[in-house]
Amino acid sequence: MLAITQAGHLACSSEALGANNRESCPATGIPVTRPPSTEPHRALTLRDVSEVSGVSEMTVSRVLRNRGDVSEATRTRVLEAARRLGYVPNKIAGALASQRVNLVGVIIPSLSNMVFPEVLSGISETLEDTGLQPVVGVSNYQGDREEQVIYEMLSWRPSGLIIAGLEHSEASRAMLAQAGVPVVEIMDIDGEPVDSAVGISHRRAGRKMAEAIVAAGYRRIAFLGTHMPTNDHRARKRLEGFEEALAGFGLSVVDREFYSGGSALAKGREMTETILKRTPDIDFLYYSNDMIGAGGLLYCLEQGLDVPGKIGLAGFNGVELLDGLPRRLATMDACRLETGRAAAEIIAGKRATGVVGGEVVEFEPKLQPGDTIRKA
Amino acid sequence: MLAITQAGHLACSSEALGANNRESCPATGIPVTRPPSTEPHRALTLRDVSEVSGVSEMTVSRVLRNRGDVSEATRTRVLEAARRLGYVPNKIAGALASQRVNLVGVIIPSLSNMVFPEVLSGISETLEDTGLQPVVGVSNYQGDREEQVIYEMLSWRPSGLIIAGLEHSEASRAMLAQAGVPVVEIMDIDGEPVDSAVGISHRRAGRKMAEAIVAAGYRRIAFLGTHMPTNDHRARKRLEGFEEALAGFGLSVVDREFYSGGSALAKGREMTETILKRTPDIDFLYYSNDMIGAGGLLYCLEQGLDVPGKIGLAGFNGVELLDGLPRRLATMDACRLETGRAAAEIIAGKRATGVVGGEVVEFEPKLQPGDTIRKA
DNA sequence: TTGAAAGCGCTAACAT
DNA sequence: ATGTTAGCGCTTTCAA
């Protein structure tokens, strides 16, 4: 099942050894100066470029950063030398000296849920032309892990921090508050941000969906979602808003089913089968995400159920995937791309500002009725 | 659609200023307490902790890194002081002084294709207990962008670099070769790695699939995939291997269809419809990825086609998603998790080794026949 | 337009 | 077990 080949080749190129060590690649059999294996790799410094180009380190530094006035002649010579040597500046030293770091920490719970990579895309897209670089940390939905990641990131003194959610341990909140750089909490605005926040109100999203469902005439409504003891605050808030709105209509969720782990599509099928067998008169299935909703939809269609006539379905997130299903699942867009963009803009715009201000950007989740909810 | 609230609070606490927030007015020498609002945030240093705890900076440093012998009493006092102040070490300074950086650069083409986040999971899982931290860079399938990202990453002097693919610009290869740290090229081993490589042979994967298809008795075989002018080398190699093997049986691909962009599931449907209308006697559809394959499968089932009797289908990647489909699409596992793990192990195991060795780890892609290919 | 000196905050190496 | 000294490679500041 697993084959391992030991190639044991030497990554050797004459250029790799720098200008000041003439030697040949061992493979060719031509005499060499140094045995490569004993040569500890020494990274090039400004000094090397300085010596080769014949100008001071300071001038080399200026050229490489496009700072200050440098004569065209000098500029050319320096760039040429740097290129020839393959010089790569040491940002660690640069950052220490300048007290400036072009890194933005981004902390998300997971990479397996497409929702987060999508927000990331928005962030990285917006950061692209600001000279800032996102650095991603993953907390695995664990508070203590999140704490570690925050600590780790702050120790690199980034220009800003973007972090998913508003719920963090006390220690985490303390670190964020003291960070001295803009902090943007994303994907949820139902709560008290440490600094800035960008996202949608999940309570509101839940409420809106409930209103749409009731308006369409459904009454025996069930909820299906992830098992969310403490972790998935956003799903919990959505459910809270959902039930709150139902209560306003004198209704409540007639049954519910939870899962954790596994293929969401398959789980959606199973849960749907389970809940419909247990409570056959359900006329609407509200899923906490689109993938389980899609699984449920496939199940219902296979069973020949009348969707959306006898039974309606809705998910949450607005994932692109839904486009190819036999029927378009009703869902609600979580504005992930916009959220990522706005968060990045806050960080980018705040650079070099001493004052830490708080800004809350709320996006309005849009209902996408699809084909699985009756027209009102 | 978009609401913005300005909260404008100041993230300022007396603790943040450290123990020495009492200072003298330069002019009069009379002690004053500074108004917090005008206080530009100054990050705490070892020195602050040293002063508060009453031991030297060096000892504080030792405690914080668990290095060397420190008395339990001192240890406690230092930790207490650090905790109270909310001290977060400056890794930039630490890295510069120690010449060691616990970062591993990971460069992938995209985050939108779940394949890459999955490899990332394998990497980050394995790195977790090594003290190393992955830093992710995205190249958007663009060679020049990749070059920039490599440059940017190397300028932080990471302990290693993991990069998708074997095809890079000349400048990129030069940088990688000179990096002086282990470099692992992943997800493809058909080519000449700069240093180490981990992944599967896509040529071989294509060949294997062709053999399985022919063995099952299919003869009118079509290919559907991404439009791959220069970018998707892995898909290209797969197709090459596929056609090569077909040729061995005296067969060739009878039709082909390409797409780019959009929802893969929806595209899979469209392409399948198109190609089947154009060439009705096709008896096998080989897709370059599972998502378009799933779309095609849904289409075929809706059309009432006899799958796998009259027409067979296969995808590539072995994505978990397939589990919930009406029928399990035949596919080939690309060993993404294992690839991520092995790459991370190479980096972790090589730390502090001066020698640059090359190691090639090949995984064997496994055919998952599913329910869309006839039993031979 | 260019150069010299003085750190940035930490750790290695060497005292004590 | 703890402290002292001398940088790490760069940029800031000031001088020429």
TrEMBL record, chains A, B:
Highest taxon of the lineage: Bacteria
Name of one Pfam family that matches: Peripla_BP_1
Transmembrane segments: none
Domain HTH lacI-type span(s) in chain numbering: 44-98
Coiled-coil intervals, chain numbering: none
Keyword list, A-Z: DNA-binding, Transcription, Transcription regulation
Entry GO MF terms: DNA binding
InterPro entries recorded: HTH_LacI, Lambda_DNA-bd_dom_sf, Peripla_BP/Lac1_sug-bd_dom, Peripla_BP_I
Signal sequence, renumbered to the chain: none
Name the UniProt record assigns to this protein: LacI family DNA-binding transcriptional regulator
Organism per entry: Pseudogemmobacter faecipullorum
